[in-house]
């Protein structure tokens, strides 16, 4: 069944947000015919002649390279094609809803997608800049800031009715392709990524390969949102407590600990408990150049179906000195206030 734009926009805000979220996260091959039709419509909506040609790139990295290599593309028209219609539509809706109404509407629509999508955009830009190196970074930065974001424009498009409006061409590209650059004579447009992996919080996350990948090999590696080198991920499978201790980068060492497992690290590193009481056992791992890892080992008093009791590890602040204080901290109270009727 084909979903019509108007049908979605007549539904609830949540329907529309979910729909646009799907386009923002799509890893399907670009629909080139629809994307090019959307680009030409966006030019016409802006009162411009259609571009003479549309050039395709496999990724934003390749897109930047193609833009830098263009010969006589004409002036950039991003302001007319993307910025001006957005400003007009935002002003119209702001006047219609009022300041408070607009704020509530944005919060219920585009605002629900903005942070995660913008974080991904920033990571892509950073990845392209990193590969460009110091010599080309200034020019590359300007090209990146000139991009229309295609599928990653979904958050602000989600806030507006797009069918039959001056935004319908931009919306069509969003639903059909990745980033693109509009010039008077030519448009450069990118394919979507071929892989996207995120954790439950929506952050880039993958322990055995790139978290975001394009068909030309441009890729971003991350663990729970934190950028990491590709070689670092490959090393995670062979970690030892000694290797974790020797890692000088504190952030990478935390990733190593999370991947290796705190309980396993405690056991394999020969750590000793620093306190125990009726609530559990307090463990402490001192790390050079970083704050210590302090954890409370607690046993669930409610048995599992097989009669065993599950053990949990709770990370607590390094200032904690007793197991009871640590458990109380997880409930947001002082040790003196922590008096459960029944511990579970």
Written overview of the protein:
- The chain is α+β, with helices and mostly antiparallel strands and 344 residues long.
- The protein has two domains: 5-192, no CATH class; 241-330, no CATH class.
- The chain has 13 helices and twelve strands.
- The chain has helices at 5-9, 13-24, 32-45, 60-69, 78-108, 111-145, 154-157, 168-174, 230-235, 241-246, 250-260, 262-268, 323-330; strands at residues 53-57, 180-182, 186-190, 195-196, 212-213, 219-220, 222-223, 226-227, 273-277, 280-285, 293-299, 311-316.
- The strands form four sheets. It has a four-stranded antiparallel β-sheet, with helices on both faces. Strands 1-3-2 form a three-stranded mixed β-sheet. The chain has a three-stranded antiparallel β-sheet with strand order 4-5-6, with helices on one face.
- Strand 5 (212-213) and strand 6 form a beta hairpin.
- Helix 3 (32-45) runs antiparallel to helix 8 (168-174) and helix 4 (60-69) packs parallel to helix 6.
- The radius of gyration is 26 Å and the shape is elongated.
- The chain starts with a helix and ends in a 14-residue tail after the last helix.
- The model is unreliable at 7-11 (pLDDT under 50).
């Amino acid at each position: 069944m084909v979903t019509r734009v108007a049908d979605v926009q007549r539904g609830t805000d949540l329907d529309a947000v979910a729909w646009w979220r799907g386009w923002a996260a799509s890893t399907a091959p670009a629909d080139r015919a629809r994307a090019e039709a959307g680009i030409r419509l966006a030019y016409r909506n802006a009162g411009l002649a259609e571009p003479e040609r549309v050039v395709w790139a496999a990724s934003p990295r390749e897109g930047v390279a193609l833009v830098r290599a263009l010969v006589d593309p004409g002036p950039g028209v991003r302001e007319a094609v993307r910025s001006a219609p957005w400003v007009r539509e935002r002003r119209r809706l702001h006047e219609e809803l009022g300041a408070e109404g607009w704020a509530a509407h944005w919060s219920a629509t585009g605002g629900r997608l903005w942070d995660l999508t913008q974080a991904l955009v920033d990571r892509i830009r950073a990845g392209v800049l990193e590969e460009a190196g110091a010599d080309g970074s200034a020019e590359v930065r300007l090209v990146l800031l000139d991009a229309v974001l295609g599928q990653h424009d979904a958050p602000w498009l989600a806030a507006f009715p797009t069918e039959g409006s001056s935004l319908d061409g931009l919306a069509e590209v969003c639903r059909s392709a990745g980033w693109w650059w509009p010039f008077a004579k030519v448009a450069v447009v990118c394919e979507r990524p071929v892989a996207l992996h995120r954790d439950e919080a929506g952050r880039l996350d993958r322990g055995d390969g790139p978290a975001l990948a394009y068909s030309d090999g441009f890729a971003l590696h991350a663990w729970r949102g934190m950028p990491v080198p590709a070689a670092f991920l490959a090393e995670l499978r062979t970690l030892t407590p000694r290797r974790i201790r020797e890692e000088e980068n504190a952030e990478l060492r935390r990733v190593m600990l999370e991947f290796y497992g705190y309980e396993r690290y405690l056991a394999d590193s020969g750590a000793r408990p620093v306190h125990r009481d009726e609530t559990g056992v307090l463990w402490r791992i001192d790390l050079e150049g970083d704050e210590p890892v302090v954890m409370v080992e607690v046993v669930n008093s409610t048995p599992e179906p097989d009669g065993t009791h599950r053990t949990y590890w709770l990370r607590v602040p390094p200032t904690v000195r007793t197991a009871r204080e640590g458990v109380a901290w997880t409930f947001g109270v002082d040790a003196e206030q922590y008096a459960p009727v029944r511990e579970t």
